[in-house]
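Weekly structure sync, notes
Attendees: PL (lead), two postdocs, one rotation student
Agenda item 3: pending single-chain targets
PL asked that the sequence for the first pending target be pasted directly into the notes so everyone works from the same version. It is reproduced below exactly as submitted, 143 residues in total.
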Amino acid sequence: MKDLEWKDAYFVGIPAIDFQHRRIFDCILSVAQGSTDDDRLRAEAEIIKLLGLLQDHFSLEESMMQALLYPDLEWHIEEHRQFHANVHHLAQTSLKNKGGVQREAIKITHKWLTEHIMVSDRQYLDFFSNTTRKSGGKKTVAE
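Predicted structure, written out during the meeting:
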């Protein structure tokens, strides 16, 4: 389970985003623990919680991107939509599957999230940083 835990390398430097990212990681870990403990109901409840956390997180990120006129907004939104759809599919599959959530599905979910933070989110952070510098240091992001 150690491989599913939050790492300081995932910090992006925007407190609201970091808080949400950490909650999402904690939720994925809870799904994994529920699946290994044969606590299927807990795992399913955590998947539903994960869907809500993702919705809130994606809304915050996307509103920040819109406010700062992020040029790759549509592409980033599409990444969010695909991931949300994949987690929704995971939820439906786990409800049908007597064995609960598959470990491989959890790994894929975790892998996507870490890659998204380390690549896609870093790209908008670079843009935000440049935008903030150009605006005279005024903070325009939820900090």
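Discussion points:
- The CA atoms of residues 44 and 95 lie 7 Å apart.
- The radius of gyration is 16 Å.
Action: rotation student to compare against the earlier draft before next sync.
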